[in-house]
Amino acid sequence: MTGTPEPQNENLTLLGRRVLLGITGSIAAYKSAFLARELIKRGAEVRIVMTPSAIEFITPLTLSTLTGKPVHSDFTENKDSGEWTNHVELGLWGDLFLTAPCTAATLSAFANGTCSNLLQAVFLSARCPVMVAPAMDLDMFTNEATLVNLKTLGERGVSVIEPASGALASGLEGKGRMEEPEAIADFVEDFFKIGMPLAGKKVVVTAGPTEEPIDAVRYLGNRSTGKMGFELAARLANLGASVTLIAGPVKLDTPPRVSKRIDVMTAKEMYEVTMEVWPEMDAGIACAAVADMRPVNPASSKLHRGDLTDEIMLENTPDILLEMGVRKSASQVLMGFALETDSVEESLKSAEGKLERKNLDFIVMNTLADEGAGFSHDTNKVTVLQKVNIHTETRIFELKSKREVAHDLIDMLSTLLIS
Ligand code: PMT
User: Fold this and answer.
1) What is the pLDDT of residue 31?
2) Same-domain pairing of 103 and 160
3) Ligand 1: distance of its center to the CA of 303 in Å?
4) Is 222 contained in some domain?
């Protein structure tokens, strides 16, 4: 077992944060180059989406050179081949979607749900927190229409980085000048530090398979890759939770900001470390595909052909989730998974049994009978059963990427965790 702490560097305050930077057609667009550089200097990964009019003020070449990534401004990447820009993927990529500078026109489009360019489509698809740094002339900024748009966006959870006062490009003096790049980067930093809905919450996630040795080289295992569990850990960490990720043998990097990763091999090891941390946790998610049985007395060296018997004696492994449910306090929230292979109807019956027996708040059912669901794929299709008093509520989700599934599941878990 090894613990892999997150790399620490005091200056890289935005290490691992993914900032999707929107740039609109304002003279302040030149400052976006400095902003992108400042965010990258602090450790963030930055991708840029521009409106067509922003390109009049600063070239995509400047910005792609600074970020080392292609800049997106059109729905089609290549008009001849018909290759298009996936605005949903961009909207899901970011931990934060920051539009700086944000003109009066874009503010209005965001407030009214207009979708006439790529940036606006990304805004409508974004699942991460959204920030705008307005930049416009004083009279435009104080116009009733702009103020109403800002209020509407604020009420919908968009953070507004207030413009500064000073000399404006129009020659007027007053409020409307986009905040300086360093100050915006500070705002972003603070937002990640304290503006996180799950800040202060501790969550343990189990992920991946376990391997139960038969001898020194063979084992009983399963096809779990850990992808689903790692996406859940990533989402929790992005929302500010302190995450302990207990991983079976997988080939995945630790998601940024996961506080602690503990690698284990067997169900017994996973049981021991989970039980050690569980009492300090606010919530637990058991996504690991834990072996239910293990060979009795595995050989410590390789068994040769002649040594192998026709039968392997098996015994039960500890049921980690069952024990978490037994030890669960009134304030702890527990989410389990149920991997089934039967029809949805049969699978739901089995999942409901696990929800009750293991004393869970949620069980996430995925069945291999659904194409694209379960092991290995980058997608999953889940149905979530939630215990509400003496009733069970059911939510059926469509086939989605595992990242999107993680967003849905953490949204549901959060309703109990922050209530
Ligand atoms: O890793 P991926 O390739 O992305 O695939 C994701 C997944 C299919 C593994 C995941 O979505 C999933 O379904 N995980 C649970 C797999 C499983 O073991 O299901 P189960 O129905 O056998 O177990 C029910 C629950 O009890 C699970 O939460 C499991 O973690 C837990 N359990 C089971 C046995 C055991 N000994 N200890 C446990 O804690």
Assistant:
1) 96
2) yes
3) 30
4) yes
User: Is 302 a domain residue?
Assistant: no
Instruction: Say if residue 147 is in the same domain as residue 85.
Output: yes
Instruction: Select which of 117, 222, 316, 366 is catalytic.
Output: 222
**Cα 205 to middle of ligand 1, angstroms:** 11
Residue 5: the pLDDT is 35
Structure confidence by residue, pLDDT tens digits, 180-193: 999 899 889 888 87
Q: Burial, 61: exposed, middle or buried (Cβ in 10 Å; 0-12, 13-18, 19+)?
A: exposed
Q: Report the CATH number that the domain containing residue 337 is assigned in CATH.
A: 3.40.50.10300
Domain count, the chain: 2
Q: What is the pLDDT of residue 14?
A: 93
**Strand pairing category for 164-167 and 173-177:** antiparallel
Residues 161 and 49 in one domain: yes
Together in a domain, 238 and 366: yes
CA of 270 to the centre of ligand 1 (A): 13
Active-site annotation holds for 222: yes
What pLDDT score does 78 carry? 65
What residues line ligand 1, using a CB cutoff of 6 Å? 206, 208, 224-228, 267, 286-290, 292, 317, 319-321, 336-339, 354, 366, 374-376
Say which residues have a Cβ less than 8 Å from residue 44's Cβ, sequence separation at least 6.
14, 15, 17, 18, 19, 188
Residue 290 phi/psi, 5° resolution?
A: -85, 135
Atom of ligand 1 nearest to the CA of 207: 1
Residue 239, in any domain of the structure? yes
> Whose C-alpha lies nearest to ligand 1, atom 24?
338
Provide the domain limits for residue 178: 18-194
Beta strands in 224-286 (DSSP E): 242-247, 260-263, 283-286
Tell me, what's the pLDDT at 143? 94
pLDDT at residue 83, as a whole number: 67
- Residue 413, token pair as written in the block: 């878990």
| Atom number in ligand 1 closest to CA 321 | 39
Report the amino acid identity of residue 185.
Answer: A
Please tell me whether residues 350 and 384 are part of one structural domain. Answer: yes
Q: Which atom of ligand 1 is nearest to the CA of 323?
A: 39
Task: List the chain residues with pLDDT less than 50.
Answer: 1-8
